[in-house]
């Protein structure tokens, strides 16, 4: 079942951005036509929630995709099946993309990003993005829901897994940058942490809410809790 699901993800959902060829997972949306039949529309949209998939794919590659009982750190090509090598590469590339979406004023990733496609008609827009963008975000205007960072753990978890599977200091460095950004922009002086409503605004505005997964998943990954 896992192998079939990951093959489906690779075949239908894994896409590349137009300029930098960033790997992302598109969203498959069901739509009902006038005859009542269900059709499927592919949208170049990736939620922050999807960023757990990078680490999961790499982990899966060393388990269901392994040709040996115990793989090396990092695994060599001869230790992985063709599907394992595919999933390892997709996972590493997805993590790279998720880290690229942290290239914001706060160093934190937005809740949802969209990616450029040739048919999007955005080439002549004033604020033309190159590869990814926050839909509806305009300088000087109220930020859309997509622009918020709500203390999500998915990228941090993937970085944790990737470091354990590779020993590559790059993943620890990325994780440390995210932690520093959370401490700088989300920590509240009177105690706790809060969602910021716009990752591209400094100093940020906070929403009076702290998600429980901050403690059990984000800070846990750093060994803070």
Structure description:
With 225 residues, the protein is of the alpha+beta class. It is 36% helix and 14% strand. It contains six helices and nine strands, in the order αβββββααββααββα. The protein has helices spanning 2-13, 52-61, 82-100, 154-166, 169-185, 213-221; strands at residues 14-16, 23-25, 27-32, 38-43, 45-47, 112-115, 132-133, 195-196, 206-207. It has a three-stranded antiparallel beta sheet, with no helix packed on it. Strand 1 (14-16) and strand 2 form a beta hairpin. It is globular, with a radius of gyration of 19 Å. The mean pLDDT is 94.
Q: SSE layout and pairings?
A:
Layout: H1 2-13, E1 14-16, E2 23-25, E3 27-32, E4 38-43, E5 45-47, H2 52-61, H3 82-100, E6 112-115, E7 132-133, H4 154-166, H5 169-185, E8 195-196, E9 206-207, H6 213-221
Antiparallel strand pairs: 1-2, 3-4, 5-6, 6-7, 8-9
Brief descriptors of the model:
225 residues, alpha+beta, 3-stranded antiparallel β-sheet
Strand order of the largest sheet: 5-6-7
Structural class: alpha+beta
Q: How many distinct beta strands?
A: 9
Shape: globular
CA gyration radius, whole angstroms: 19 Å
Low-pLDDT stretches? none
Short account of what is shown:
The protein has helices at 2-13, 52-61, 82-100, 154-166, 169-185, 213-221, and strands at residues 14-16, 23-25, 27-32, 38-43, 45-47, 112-115, 132-133, 195-196, 206-207. With 225 residues, it is of the alpha+beta class. Strands 5-6-7 form a 3-stranded antiparallel β-sheet, with no helix packed on it. It has a two-stranded antiparallel ribbon with strand order 1-2.
């Amino acid at each position: 079942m896992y192998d079939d699901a990951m093959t489906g993800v690779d075949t239908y959902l894994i896409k590349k951005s137009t300029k930098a060829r960033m790997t992302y997972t598109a969203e498959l949306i069901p739509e009902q036509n006038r005859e009542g039949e269900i059709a499927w529309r592919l949208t170049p949209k990736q939620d922050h929630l999807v960023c757990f998939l990078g680490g999961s794919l790499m982990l899966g590659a060393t388990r269901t995709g392994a040709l040996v009982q115990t793989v090396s750190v990092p695994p060599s090509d001869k230790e992985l099946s063709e599907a394992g090598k595919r999933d390892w590469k997709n996972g590493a590339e997805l993590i790279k993309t998720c880290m690229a979406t942290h290239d914001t004023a706060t160093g934190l990733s937005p809740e949802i990003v969209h990616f450029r496609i040739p048919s999007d008609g955005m080439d002549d827009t004033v604020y033309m993005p190159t590869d990814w963008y926050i839909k509806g975000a305009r300088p000087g205007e109220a930020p859309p829901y997509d622009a918020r960072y709500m203390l999500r753990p998915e990228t941090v978890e993937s970085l944790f897994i990737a470091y354990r599977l590779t020993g590559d200091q790059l993943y620890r460095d990325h994780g440390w940058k995210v932690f520093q950004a959370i401490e700088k922009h989300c920590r509240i002086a009177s105690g706790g942490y809060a969602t910021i409503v716009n990752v591209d605004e400094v100093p940020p505005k906070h929403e009076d809410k702290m998600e429980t997964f901050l403690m059990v998943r984000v800070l846990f990954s750093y060994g803070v809790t």
